[in-house]
Write a structure and sequence with these properties.
The protein is mainly alpha-helical. The protein has one domain (3-254): Up-down Bundle (Rhopdopsin 7-helix transmembrane proteins), CATH 1.20.1070.10. The chain has helices spanning 3-32, 37-55, 64-98, 104-131, 135-169, 175-191, 193-212, 227-239, 243-254, 256-269, 282-287, 293-301.
């Protein structure tokens, strides 16, 4: 079994898991019915991540049309997901520095337009050069894409580090200042998970594509890859689809209602086999004739 086949196998195992995680996160956002600015950003980022996760299946097809499709979706949706993580980091930093509320809902349509225009531009340029067989121009455009991705990662890290530095600096202030800062601090610590997920999931593949100036799927055409190249390729195949699960875990970490909803879904889907009913649904579950306690209740009422 060749190196590319092994990497593709890893990708085919992990991609469905992450696509399902992204889809379930979108479902949770819908189920919670909390369409505030924060939720809108998470929804937009998760939708981009889901599209990116699905596009990874196209690695299995080697025709020029499928490669072009995967290239376009991968660049567009991958950049969009990373850009939304940067937007979240920027909002987080703005809140900390200005100590003011940023109205995401009012500005959301402008954020969507900016992220979309930014993400699709290089995707279209790369696609045109790729389809026209202009290898030199494609390499330049693809290098620009990689430069953009590494810039997004670095800026995200800078914003997160600056934010936490600012938070740690405020620890020495008066009690009243700490109380004023506490809600902002909690919000910021919650928001920082999303940029970290993007950083972790995209770092190996970004390094690979910068080091070898080619899409990672072109590894299939390298007849004698080095040990380091193979190492980067395997790590890319493992981590690149991890954004879906990472965003899902981040969403659960910052949303108690999402965790409760997950408990309810798990309980009902398992027929009550997984632990006890979550709070608030036990009586309803037992009234419908489910669970072992129903018999005991009937006996007690006779």
């Amino acid at each position: 079994m060749g190196s590319f086949t092994i990497g593709l196998l890893l990708l085919n195992i992990l991609s469905p898991i992450n696509a399902i995680a992204s889809a379930y996160t979108i479902y949770l956002v819908w189920a919670l019915q909390k369409y505030n600015g924060y939720m809108l950003m998470v929804l937009a980022m998760t939708a981009a991540q889901f599209s990116y996760d699905v596009s990874l299946f196209l690695f299995n097809f080697r025709t020029i049309q499928w490669r072009a499709t995967q290239l376009f979706i991968g660049i567009f949706c991958g950049t969009a997901a990373a850009s939304w993580s940067l937007v979240i980091a920027c909002v987080m930093t703005y809140i900390i520095v200005s100590k003011k509320y940023y109205n995401i809902e009012i500005n959301f349509k402008y954020l969507v337009a900016a992220v979309t225009a930014f993400s699709i531009t290089d995707a279209i340029v790369c696609l045109i050069y790729f389809l026209n067989g202009e290898k030199d121009d494609f390499k330049i455009a693809f290098s620009v894409f990689n430069g953009i991705r590494i810039a997004i990662i670095l800026l995200t890290v800078v914003f997160i580090c600056y934010t936490f530095y600012t938070l740690s600096f405020t620890q020495g202030r008066t009690t009243s200042a700490k109380k004023k800062q506490k809600p902002i601090s909690i919000l910021t610590r919650r928001l920082c998970y999303y940029p970290l997920v993007q950083f972790i999931s995209r770092f190996p593949i970004t390094i690979y594509q910068i080091a070898y100036a080619q899409p990672v799927e072109d590894f299939a055409f390298d007849s004698n890859p080095s040990v380091f190249q193979s190492f980067l390729f395997y790590f890319s195949m493992i981590f690149v689809p991890a954004g879906g699960v990472g965003n899902f875990l981040a969403f659960l970490a910052v949303q108690p209602d999402a965790r409760e909803r997950l408990k309810q879904d798990t309980f009902f889907l398992s027929g009550g086999m997984c632990g006890s009913p979550p709070k608030g649904i036990e009586d309803k579950w037992l009234e419908n004739g489910n669970g072992t306690n129903n018999t005991n209740r009937n006996k007690g009422g006779e």
